[in-house]
Each structure stands twice: as C-alpha cells, then as structure tokens.
Design a protein that fits this description.
The protein has two domains: about 170 residues, 3-Layer(aba) Sandwich (Rossmann fold); about 80 residues, no CATH class. The protein is about 40% helix and about 20% strand. The chain contains eleven helices and ten strands. Helix 3 packs parallel to helix 6. The structure holds adenosine-5'-triphosphate (ATP). The site of adenosine-5'-triphosphate (ATP) has 12 residues, from strand 2 and helix 1. GO terms for molecular function: ATP binding; ATP hydrolysis activity; L-isoleucine transmembrane transporter activity; L-phenylalanine transmembrane transporter activity; L-valine transmembrane transporter activity. One of its GO terms (cellular component) is plasma membrane. Keywords: ATP-binding, Nucleotide-binding, Transport. One of its GO terms (biological process) is D-alanine transmembrane transport.
C-alpha cells in the first residue's frame, strides 16, 4: 500500500528523519513508536505532503506522493488525524465530517455561490456520509452538538470520523489514545480494528500507549533520533535491547511517560 524509501528530512542543521525505509502492507495495522523527538510526526508530515522530504520517495499503491500538496495527498487516498485535536470547534459534529467529505464531492465553488442543483445534491450526499460515519464511530447522539462540547475521547473519535469521510486507502493516526482513560482506549482499539476489518482501510499509528501498541499492531517500526533502530512483530520489538535502551536509556523518556510508555509495560 505505502512504500517509503530512504526518506530524510533535515531542518537547518537538524536531521529529524534519517534515511528511513518502511513498507505498509494493504489492510494492515502498523505502529511507529519512539521516544520524544524521535521524528515520528515529521515522518507523518512528509507522507501527508506538509513537509517535502530532503531525500527519498513515498509511493501510495505505486503513485509518487512527494511533490503533492496536502489536499492532493488526501485525494490520492491518505487521511490523517493530528496529535493536537484540530476540529472546527464552532461547527457541529456533523458539519465537521461534512468538511472532510467535500474532497470527494463534485460541486464547485461556483455551484456553492449560485446554489445550483449540483450543490444541493452534494450537500445531501455529504450529510448522508456524515450520518454513516457518526454511526460507525458511535457518535450519532452528538450529531448536532458543537464539536467543542464533546467529551475529549469523543472529539478524538470525531477527528477519526472526519478523516474516514474522505474514503482513504490509508489513515494515519497521530497519538489517537492521548488523554484517553482506559475505557476510552479499549473502545478506540475496537474502533481501529473495525476501520481495518469493516472498511478495509489500512491503519498506521503513532502512539505512546505501549499496551495499546503491543496488542493492536501487526508490525512496529521504532525511530530514535530520526533513524529506524528496530522493526518487527510486537514481541520482537518488545524484546529488542536497542528499543529498551532508546526508552530507558533516557531518564526523561521513562520519567515522562511512566511505565505505560516503555515497550515492556
Ligand atoms: N518545523 C520544524 N523545524 C525545525 N525542527 C523541527 C521541525 N519539526 C520538528 N522538528 C524537530 O525534529 C525533531 C523530531 O520532531 P518530531 O516532532 O517529528 O518528533 P516526534 O517523534 O513526533 O516527537 P513527540 O513524540 O514528542 O511528538 C525534533 O528535534 C523537533 O524539534
């Protein structure tokens, strides 16, 4: 599905991502982990067209993504959520998802201004897609509620629903469990499995909650200081001394996230 080859990103003198190669198979659930500042978000930002890699190629089903704008990457089939929730807080849950859906609609700006038949058809289609997505993520009861009024865990789910409304082939989730309580995290795990199983969407996540990562991921890639230091099945990564060293060798990482964040937690 996604082939990332020898990707590097240099900011001034800092190499944030260093020669990383990674393949994401179709319909898999993959995680990218690593201590603070390891380069995970920069990696997502390159895949989604926010940053252009200094070097390397990124192909989605054989099509080169490097050089595309973020909106073109979404159209190609890659959607994402952000580490810090980025919902339109003064819009309802339904409207937030409709915004995501617009990338797939046929009506133009002119249609919207002139309120043409095509515009009304598109609006109806977007509203129906939003209804289906709200139902899928279990947020139907919040349909008309402003996004800002939703409980935190539900705001994260709404972001996922908005990403899914673009009908992606691949969805990138940046710390989806951040700030969630254990029950919300269990719900999220079930939702991520359904995204893959029911919608056939490939999932790649960045996550610090190691319990979630180890039980959900089929394959894990570990970054540290921008470089890939390990990859493999959860039990292989968990037992890799380089990974433990990356987390526990840095008191800051262990202290900041506590036991939950270490691969053996
Ligand atoms: N736009 C930028 N300009 C300069 N440096 C940047 C920029 N974006 C990220 N960096 C640096 O690149 C490195 C990797 O950052 P990145 O945010 O990708 O790490 P991360 O693994 O996502 O960290 P975290 O787990 O804390 O979110 C850091 O040293 C960061 O300060």
């Amino acid at each position: 599905m996604l082939e990332v080859q020898n990707v590097t990103k240099i900011f001034g003198g800092l190499t944030a991502v260093n020669d990383v190669t990674m393949n994401i198979p179709d319909r898999s659930i993959i995680s990218v982990i690593g201590p603070n500042g390891a380069g995970k978000t920069t990696f997502f930002n390159m895949i989604t067209g926010i940053y252009t890699p200094t070097k390397g190629t990124i192909r989605l089903a054989g099509r080169e993504m490097v050089g595309l704008r973020p909106d073109q990457v979404v159209e190609a089939g890659i959607a994402r959520t952000f580490q810090n929730i980025r919902l339109f807080s003064t819009m309802s849950s339904e409207e937030n998802i409709m915004v995501g859906r617009h990338v797939r609609l046929k009506s133009t700006f002119i249609d919207a201004v002139l309120h043409t038949k095509r515009f009304h058809q598109s609006e109806a289609e977007a509203r129906e897609a939003a209804r289906v997505m709200l139902d899928f993520v279990g947020l139907s009861k919040w349909r008309n509620e402003l996004a800002t009024n939703l409980p935190y865990g539900d705001q994260r789910k709404l972001e996922i629903a908005r990403a899914l409304a673009t009908t992606p082939k691949l969805v990138l989730l940046d710390e989806p469990a951040a700030g969630m309580n254990p029950r919300e995290t269990e719900d999220l795990k079930a939702l991520i499995r359904r995204i893959r199983d029911d919608l056939g969407v490939t999932v790649c996540l960045i996550e610090h909650d190691m319990r979630l990562v180890m039980t959900l991921s089929e394959y894990i890639t570990v970054l540290d200081y921008g470089s890939k230091i390990s990859e493999g099945l959860p039990h292989q990564v968990r037992n890799d001394p380089r990974v433990m060293e990356a987390y526990l060798g840095r008191g800051a990482a262990a202290g900041e996230y506590g036991k939950e964040a270490t691969p053996n937690a």
